[in-house]
Amino acid sequence: MSLASPIDSKLEGVVWKRTLKEPVLSYPTLAGEESTDIVVVGAGFCGLNAALAAAKTGQKVILLEAGIVGSGASGRNGGYNVPQFPGPITPGVVEAVIGKKKGQALSELVLGGADAVFRQIERYQINCSAVQHGWVQPAHSEASLAKVKKVFDAWKAWGADVTWLSQGDLSARLGAAGYIAGWFNPTGGTVNPYGLTIGLGRAATQEGVRIFEKSPVDGIEEGPGGVTVKAGPSRVLAKRVIVATNAYTGDFLPDVQRATVPVYLYHAATHPLRAELRASILPGGECFTDLRKSGGFGRLDDAGRLISGGAVFAFGDKQAYGIAHAKNRMRQLFPQLTDADCEFEDYWEGYCAVTESYLPQVQRLGKEVFAVVGFSTRGVNLAQNLGRVVGEFAAGTRSLDEVPVAVIEQRRDVPLWALKVRAARLVFPLYQAKDRLGLS
């Protein structure tokens, strides 16, 4: 899977595909010429929700996907539905970056977003192993404790239903070692993300969206008659286009590709844990993500597999490196695990798009052509809810000013993009060192 062509429709090694409960639907490949009101490019969380929201207003929508529905980051992430910005970002920081009005609106979207995802799953009866037992952000060091407490205080002042947890509280909730304190939001939880994308595709078609798979877009041209979206010899003429390809854009649209740094991540899933371990590890079904740079998070799937991961270190045998790190981190978090408990059934990789601010943004690529990028590890919540908002904008029921993120009116590449892409693939040992020294 190269950066130029990152599509992996087979989802090799992804546990979510192997444990899928939602029936897979197949969609045709675009052929010939079509016309519609709105074209959405990319059938992940953002694109599916944008298409769904626009179609619900009565707009005709065509959704084009280069691979298959959910084959990008949406179908291969960890499945954490988190009601918080990436890491230690607070609502105040967001307001400082994008302004008070949009910052407050985005904070509201994030705070209520995890619950909104679960309610939509219920509305469309999507069978994606959804568990809403809450999310915890624990502090693993004195440095992280100050950041975690600041985030908690900010949400508490916002009026959020959040709870501060002592070291003893954390131990009881997580069954994990080494945490000092943290906080809990009951609206968070977990999903099978690939199952969720499959279900969203079904929901979108129910609302009238026409989905075309294996139809990679290789050109977008705007003219007096509208916007022409090209996919090989086939064409779609539309009034407005939303590009939602994120880290899976490839080379055809450098304006979008170079607006974020694609961070290459891996996940690994154990065999289902023994009954006595399941009683002591995340016994209440919560999930957690800490502030470790080299990955500190935990969840169980519905069969009791423990899932971990981190950034890929693309030097030497990267898979062996990732598996060794995942085993060590699991043993560090949960000393009750043996080496045999940490044997993995599944290992997979994929891209995550990170902006310089760690916040998503909308890019204006033309008068009626827009892209949404940069969910920075918060795609299950942010990509879906922002996708819905962008879909409402595409349909004309919401103004661009009402989309609660920065709108970039001209091309703005990440400085030193090529160097940062390379560095992101080699920096993992540095992350590990910072964590060992208590600097994260």
Automatic annotation (TrEMBL):
FAD dependent oxidoreductase domain mapped to chain residues: 37-391
Keywords linked to the UniProt accession: Oxidoreductase
UniProt keyword annotation of Oxidoreductase present: yes
GO molecular function, one term: oxidoreductase activity
InterPro entries listed in its UniProt record: FAD-dep_OxRdtase, FAD/NAD-bd_sf
Single GO cellular component term: cytoplasm
Name of the protein described by the UniProt record: Glycine/D-amino acid oxidase
Organism: Ancylobacter rudongensis
